[in-house]
Amino acid sequence: MAFSIALIIIFGLLADYLLRRIKLPGLIGMLFVGVIAGPYVLGLISPEMMTVSGDLRRIALIVILLRAGFELHRDTLNRVGRAALIMSCVPALFEIAGIAWVAPKLLNITLLDALILGSILAAVSPAVVVPLMINFMDRGRGAKKGIPTLILGASSVDDVFVIVLFTVFLGMVGTQSVNIWAKLAEIPISITLGILVGIIPGYILWRLFIRYDWRPPKRTLIVLGVAILLTWFEQFCENFVPIASLLGVMAIGFIILEKSQSIAHLISQKLKKLWVFAELLLFVLVGAQVNIHVALDAGLAGMFVIAVGLIFRSIGTYISLFGAGLNWQEKLFCVVAYIPKATVQAAIGAVPLAAGLPAGEVILAVAVLSIIVTAPLGAIGIMVMGERILDQGERSPYMFKEIRKKFELPHVGQRVRNKNTGRIWKVIEEKEIWMTSPEPKSNSPQSSQKIPAIHLRFWAEDTYPRKGSGKTFSQIYSSKGRSFEKDWEILFDW
Question: CB within 8 A of 429, min separation 6: which ones?
Answer without folding.
Answer: 412, 455, 456, 457, 474
